[in-house]
Write a structure and sequence with these properties.
190 residues; 13% strand
Length: 190
C-alpha cells in the first residue's frame, strides 16, 4: 500500500480508480485556504470548487484524504480564517492538518511580511507554524492567529459529522478499526 500527494484539481475518476486498484490508501491535498480570493493571492492555481471535486472523487473510490490547510496568510482576517475552517469542515476529510504559512527567507512571502513589519521576531526557534506563529498581520493579531491554530484540531475532530464518518470508516478494515480506536482514545481522554 502507498499514499500520494496530488493537486486536487488534477484528480480524475480514472486516476482515482487506478490508484485504488494499485493499493493507494491515502491522498494528500494542499488545500491551503477556503477562500477563493486568498487562493488567488497565494497563486495556488485552483478554486474551492476544484478542491471539493478532487476530495469527492478520492472519497468515492475509498481513498482516504489528508487535507493540509493554512491559517494566517498576510491577507487573512477573522472572516477568511473562518471561511477556511468551515471549508475544511465541509470537505470532511478523514485527516486534516493545520499550520500557519512559514515565511522562508528568500521568498516573496518573507519579503512581503518584512516590508510590512509583520515579524514579531526573526528567531526561527520561536516560530512553530503548528502552534505558535511569530507574525502579526494587518487584519489578524498574533494572539488571534495562535488561538485559531491551538483550537483547530479540537473543533475539527470533535464534530458530529466527522465522528459519524469515522465510525463507518472503522468497518472497512481491521487497520481502520484499530487506528480509529487509538484516535478516539486521544481525542476524548485529553
Amino acid at each position: 500500500t502507498f499514499s500520494v500527494q496530488c493537486r486536487p484539481q488534477l484528480m480524475t475518476e480514472e486516476e482515482a480508480k487506478w490508484l485504488k486498484r494499485a493499493g493507494c490508501r491515502m491522498v494528500l491535498y494542499g488545500v491551503e485556504s477556503g477562500n477563493d480570493e486568498i487562493l488567488k493571492k497565494i497563486r495556488k492555481g485552483t478554486t474551492k470548487d476544484e478542491i471539493s471535486r478532487g476530495v469527492k472523487i478520492a472519497k468515492k473510490y475509498g481513498i482516504d484524504v489528508l487535507n493540509c490547510v493554512m491559517l494566517g496568510f498576510y491577507w487573512d482576517n477573522k472572516q477568511t480564517v473562518e471561511d477556511t475552517i468551515n471549508f475544511a469542515f465541509e470537505l470532511n476529510a478523514e485527516f486534516t492538518q493545520v499550520s500557519a504559512p512559514t515565511p522562508l527567507p528568500g521568498t516573496d512571502y518573507y519579503q512581503l511580511l518584512e516590508e510590512n513589519s509583520c515579524f514579531l521576531t526573526k528567531e526561527w526557534e520561536k516560530h512553530d507554524s503548528v502552534h505558535n506563529s511569530s507574525v502579526e498581520l494587518p487584519h489578524l493579531t498574533n494572539n488571534d492567529l495562535n488561538t485559531y491554530l491551538k483550537t483547530f484540531y479540537r473543533r475539527y475532530y470533535r464534530r458530529p459529522a466527522y465522528l459519524w464518518m469515522m465510525f463507518w470508516r472503522m468497518f472497512r478494515s481491521w487497520g481502520n478499526f484499530t487506528q480509529s480506536m487509538r484516535k478516539f482514545n486521544v481525542l476524548f481522554t485529553k
